[in-house]
User: Which sequence fits this backbone?
């Protein structure tokens, strides 16, 4: 039993004896994880918004008037064989006119005059694509098919919006990794100072035949405890802060197109992730320090 409890006892004693360094390390991990939580909230919400934008992007395929019913059916088949196409919905001239009138609001009623034989609009296919496929490539491929008059999907503005959101998401994830490395560096230095303060004790343990794992275990636990303590405040701020933000914005960022992730289980997932990152960072930082010292002393 004493063999099991010894590492925990020595770990807490080490943290208590060097309370100043312990506090600075916990504070550093706290700030790091707070920034990490901020970037994760931004990145993961941007990812969701990007997915929503992609799923809402549709390719509008106008069909030539010269195509008969058989030709329209053939065009449907040809579009469906293109890799990346998800769904195809036929929209006749009247449906296209309804959309056109609706886009002008109450003033659109003046276009009712064109209903019927005078309708100048074309039949169309509304095409959606599968996630991860290049909409511009699929659009260009559809444009080459016989019977297609014109293809539109929002053009470069849609592509730029998606690329911009992807850049924000990727940038946030990169910053998260950088902050993790910074936290490991800070904990490594803290444990290193703790080891230097107990160098005589470690030397004695070495002389009486203590194994590397026996010497290493209390320091690893110190790192884990620092990581856990450093994660408590970021977890609380993330859970309650995101709930408050979601309520203030009513779950929407600017427009209904930009929907935030629902609070639950998102905040629980973030809390779990922050705790795991805190423990991992503490464990890795302490492992690096104590392993270097043990090798050096050999």
Assistant:
């Amino acid at each position: 039993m004493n063999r099991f409890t010894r590492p925990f006892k020595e770990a807490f004693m080490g943290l208590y004896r060097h309370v100043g360094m312990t506090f600075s390390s916990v504070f550093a991990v706290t700030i790091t994880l707070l920034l990490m939580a901020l970037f994760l909230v931004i990145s993961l919400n941007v990812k969701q918004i990007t997915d929503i934008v992609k799923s809402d992007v549709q390719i509008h395929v106008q069909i030539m008037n010269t195509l008969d019913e058989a030709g329209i059916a053939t065009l449907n088949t040809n579009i469906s064989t293109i890799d990346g196409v998800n769904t195809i919905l036929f929209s006749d001239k009247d449906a296209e006119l309804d959309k056109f009138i609706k886009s002008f609001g109450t003033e659109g009623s003046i276009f009712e005059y064109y209903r019927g034989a005078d309708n100048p609009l074309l039949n169309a296919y509304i095409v959606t694509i599968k996630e991860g496929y290049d909409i511009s490539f699929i659009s260009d491929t559809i444009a080459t098919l016989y019977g297609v008059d014109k293809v539109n999907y929002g053009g470069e503005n849609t592509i730029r919006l998606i690329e911009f959101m992807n850049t924000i998401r990727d940038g946030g994830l990169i910053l998260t990794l950088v902050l993790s490395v910074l936290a490991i560096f800070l904990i490594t230095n803290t444990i290193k100072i703790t080891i230097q303060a107990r160098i005589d004790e470690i030397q004695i343990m070495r002389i009486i035949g203590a194994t590397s794992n026996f010497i290493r275990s209390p320091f690893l636990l110190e790192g884990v405890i620092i990581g856990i303590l450093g994660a408590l405040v970021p977890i609380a701020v993330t859970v309650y802060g995101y709930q408050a933000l979601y309520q203030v914005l009513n779950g929407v960022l600017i427009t209904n197109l930009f929907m935030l992730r629902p609070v639950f289980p998102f905040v629980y997932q973030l809390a779990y992730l922050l705790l795991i990152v805190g423990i991992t960072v503490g464990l890795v930082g302490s492992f690096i320090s104590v392993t270097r010292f043990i090798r050096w002393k050999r």
In short: DSSP finds nine helices and six strands in the chain. The mean pLDDT is 83.
